[in-house]
Design a protein that fits this description.
The structure holds two protein chains of two kinds.
Chain A (H helix, E strand, L loop, with lengths): L1 E5 H11 L4 E4 L6 H10 L6 E4 L3 H12 L5 E5 L1 H17 L3 E9 L5 E5 L4 H5 L9 E3 L4 H18 L2 E7 H5 L1 E5 H4 L43 E3 L13 H16 L2 H4 L2 E4 L6 E5 L1 H16 L4 E6 L1 E3 L3 H9 L3 E6 L4 H11 L6 E6 L8 H7 L1
Parallel strand pairs in A: 2-3, 2-4, 4-5, 5-8, 7-8, 12-13, 12-15, 15-16
Antiparallel strand pairs in A: 1-9, 5-6, 7-14, 11-13
Chain B lengths: L30 H16 L6 E5 L14 E4 L5 H11 L4 E7 H6 L1 H10 L3 E7 L34 H6 L5 E6 L5 H10 L4 E6 L6 H5 L3 H10 L5 E5 L5 H9 L25 E8 L4 H14 L3 E7 L8 E9 L13 E4 L2 H6 L1 H6 L5 E5 L11 E5 L10 H13 L4 H11 L2 H18 L1
The chains are: A alpha/beta, B alpha/beta.
């Protein structure tokens, strides 16, 4: 079935089809279409959607709902992520499964509300005090808006952690042709592991397996009392400053993502035999890359390309392999080279070390395929 | 507590205190211990299932309180307790959600307090109001009385204290009460507040024996004196009967439940075209000129011809004034890059639109075509072929976009005109479609 559809609707459909039943958001361009879709559609599946008084309340309500067992999502743009920041830390600390859509627009501050950018890439990674790892997925086409939203929910459930869908104004608001029946892959919903503790014996944060998210019981659970806290806590969810318990908790928050980084990796790699140059991009800029690479190949040039779908944790293995097979790496992105930092870091450890350069744009316009071709 | 006996005939709850930690951590004489005890007494009175009770705490000394209860607990960030509580209640209306916050939390989270009251979300807020920040060293808060000495008001507080009760009361709270930690009937009053079906708040004044009392030589009677000077009366102050939000939401949307989400708009490939390479079209007009909807009709007509299409809109942040630009690409294959630095076709139908496409005009070469209104023609310098559109003076400016699209569809033969009219009929409301079809006729005549 062919539809003329934008990313906002596909994100909303992806969310509802995987079982999202709570959404809170606050109007902000260019994320508002997602708010509108979710508030209109959620009641039809028995869910709850609410427009909060501000972004801080949006993510707070989403967190509260998630801890009652809801599959919750919120969506905003850069200025909203700034306001979410403190609660992103809370969600990491309390191990709250949550999907946060960031529809990137030109920054800093209010920047350009209706113009595209990819300037939140490092901000998403480091948006919490303490600097704990996050997961961020990045759709580069319409179909991925749907499937990566679903994937984000599954990762959030599996790791009990906030997962970002890092997208942008153009991906969310540009309409395009899609054969939705063929292109939209519905994922099997994963659920957070529920506790099997005997009544009265539940420990909210046992951390017996450091790299595994603790079993979940809902606030409101009829068998066990649940204690949630944003402060450094022991296995009972009680405040503690004991160094050995504090260290165990903080190592757990780090390890539960780091130890699984290889499983979270998602890239689309399209190598070409004999190519010396590899282009690495993500999101809306990957589309410019795809066109540039297709044109270059049509002209007889040999060039490889790689689309990063899981921005964080960095898909180290896939990138290391791809980088090692090329002499020159070109990284187009709509910022001053934020993800290039990660590519350079990986390249630095390789022998021979490939040369890394960027194609960057921060004027609110998309990178044109011609600009990428000029850099090949 | 005697909750989980093997086969209880009647479950009774003698206490809601957490047996794991007995002793409160609060200073001697601090009102926090008293209010927590009275909350426990209220819960015993209500005999609520502790699995249906959630204690949400804010930051400050009061934020330590949740640990002392054997009920679900949520301890979050400073000022946000009411927002977490709102999310919990909205997601699970069966729960009794009780927020314990201080006067500090009422300051940093005042916005959430007002909005929770206004929404009438069914939570109970107990404000442990000791008139200053205790945990961080006795700084002044939003409720510190005028003239009071604190760590941050060495010369006496110049600010007026916030009337928490009035603030939530005038904004629709179902129940608002002011009292002190010394009140003997607190268990009854707290139980009453918890039983309210809606937003309930109790502003409970108390003594901070670590800071406020020594700094101001302050006593219980001084506290009552301040209350009276400020005309902040004690007792039940507001009652309102607006519907509770979580229940009202479910009631309102019950009829839509189990409807299939999302209206899908399938586009059948019923026409054909010989277009064999991408065609990049820009419509440059003004807000309110049906630029975007016309672009959508054109793009959907292309899809009906078996083509791929993308549509990217540009407009200023003000919706009903200024330019409106739609960039449409139609192509026989998948479209990756959706920008159009160099259009094949550019339709200029308003001065605001013209102002936005100067760069694109400069990029266009001899193979491009510009459709431009006669009155704007003299301002358009381009190497592209110019087709001047001369609609008569009666043409509605809302019809100009469709007229221009019809003109270039007719002229370029990029698709059959029937695809365009079929899309108008299928995708637009009947009265709008009628106008569009007229505009298409006009457009065709302009290039015949």
């Amino acid at each position: 079935m062919y539809e003329f559809i934008d990313g906002a609707e596909l994100i909303a459909r992806g969310a509802i089809d995987i079982g999202c039943d709570f959404f809170a958001g606050y109007p902000i361009t260019p994320a508002s279409p997602i708010l509108i879709h979710m508030l209109r559609e959620l009641p039809k599946v028995g869910g709850v959607g609410i427009q909060a008084e501000d972004e801080i309340a949006s993510i707070s309500m989403t967190i509260g709902a998630a801890m009652t067992g809801a599959r919750a999502m919120t969506a905003t743009a850069g200025p909203g992520i700034s306001l979410y920041s403190e609660n992103i830390g809370l969600a990491l600390m309390g191990e709250v499964p949550l999907v946060i859509v960031d529809v990137q627009r030109l920054g800093p501050a209010t920047g350009g509300a209706t113009t595209v950018a990819q300037g939140d890439v490092q901000f998403l990674r480091w948006s919490t005090s303490g600097g704990y790892p996050v997961i961020a997925l990045c759709p580069s086409d319409a179909a991925e808006c749907y499937t990566l939203t679903q994937h984000a929910f599954n990762l959030a459930e599996r790791f009990r952690t906030p997962v970002f869908l890092a997208t942008d104004k153009e991906t969310v608001m540009t309409q395009g042709t899609l054969d939705t029946d063929a292109a939209l892959k519905h994922l099997t919903p994963e659920r957070r592991t529920r506790t099997v503790a005997a009544p009265g014996s539940f420990l909210p944060y046992p951390l017996t397996e450091p790299a595994t998210a603790p079993p979940f019981a809902a606030i409101g659970d009829a068998q066990n009392i649940v204690r949630f806290t944003t402060s450094t806590h022991d296995e009972r969810g009680m405040l503690t400053k004991k160094p050995e318990k504090v260290e165990r908790l903080n190592n757990h928050l780090y390890e539960k993502i780091r130890a699984h980084a290889a499983e979270i990796e998602m890239v689309r790699y399209d190598p070409q035999d004999g190519a010396e140059t590899l282009v690495v991009s993500f999101g809306i800029t990957a589309r410019s890359m795809q066109e540039a690479v297709a044109d270059a190949r049509a002209d007889g040039q040999r060039v490889s390309q790689l689309i990063v779908q899981s921005l964080w944790p960095v898909p180290e293995n896939a990138l290391r392999r791809a980088l090692a097979a090329h002499r020159r790496i070109v990284v187009p992105e709509l910022n001053h080279g934020q993800y290039r930092l990660e590519i350079e870091r990986i390249a630095y450890a390789l022998d021979p070390r490939p040369a890394v350069s960027g194609v960057n744009r921060v004027d609110g316009e998309l990178i044109a395929p011609r600009q990428i071709q000029d850099a090949l | 507590m005697s909750t989980h006996t093997a086969t209880p005939l009647v479950t009774t709850f003698a206490t809601y205190r957490n047996p794991e930690i007995a002793k409160y951590p609060f200073c001697p004489g601090c009102g926090h211990s008293t209010i927590n005890d009275q909350l426990n007494a209220a819960l015993v009175k209500l005999q609520l299932d502790p699995h249906k009770v959630v204690i949400v705490t804010d930051i400050g000394c009061v934020g330590l309180s949740d640990q002392y209860f054997a009920a679900h607990a949520f301890h979050g960030l400073h000022g946000r307790s009411v927002a977490y509580a709102s999310g919990i209640k909205l997601a699970n209306p069966e729960l009794k959600v009780i927020v314990l916050m201080g006067d500090g939390g009422c300051g940093i989270g005042g916005h959430h307090l007002i909005n929770a009251a206004r929404r009438n979300v069914g939570i109970t807020v107990l404000v442990f109001n000791n008139l200053n920040f205790g945990m961080t060293g006795g700084q002044h808060s939003v409720t510190t009385p005028h003239g009071a000495l604190t760590a941050t008001t060495r010369g006496g507080n110049l600010e007026r204290p916030l009337d928490i009760c009035a603030t939530v009361g005038v904004n629709g709270a179902s129940y608002v009460y002011r009292g002190t930690s010394f009140d003997k009937d607190l268990p009854e009053r707290i139980a009453e507040a918890i039983n309210v079906d809606g937003f309930a708040l109790m502003d409970l004044w108390e003594l901070c024996t670590a800071y406020y009392v020594p700094n101001n030589d302050f006593s219980r009677s001084d506290m009552l004196g301040v209350m009276s000077e400020l005309h902040m009366q004690a007792g039940e102050l507001y009652r309102a009967g607006y519907p509770e939000l979580a229940s009202a939401y479910r009631a309102q949307y019950a009829p839509t439940r189990s409807k299939t989400p999302f209206t899908r708009k399938p586009l059948a490939r019923e026409f054909t075209t010989r277009l064999d390479k991408p065609l990049r079209v820009v419509i440059a007009g003004s807000a309110g000129g049906k630029v975007k909807s016309t672009a959508t009709v054109f793009a959907q007509a292309a899809i009906r011809c078996g083509l791929f299409a993308t549509q990217r809109d540009d407009y200023p942040t003000t919706v009903m004034s200024g330019h409106s630009l739609s960039e449409i690409i139609i192509a026989p294959g998948e479209i990756f890059y959706t920008g159009i630095p160099r259009p094949d076709v550019l339709a200029i139908i308003s001065p605001e639109g013209l102002g936005q496409v100067k760069a694109q005009l400069a990029e266009m070469g001899e193979s491009g075509t510009v459709y431009v209104l006669a009155e704007l023609e003299s301002k358009v310098q381009t190497r592209a072929r110019k087709i001047i559109l001369r609609p008569d003076g009666k043409t509605n400016r809302k019809a100009l976009a469709m007229m221009a699209v019809a003109a270039f569809v007719k002229h370029s033969r990029c698709m059959p005109l029937e695809a365009l009219t079929a899309s108008v009929r299928a995708d637009q409301r009947a009265d709008v479609a009628e106008e569009s079809l007229k505009a298409i006729e006009t457009g065709i005549k302009l290039v015949e």
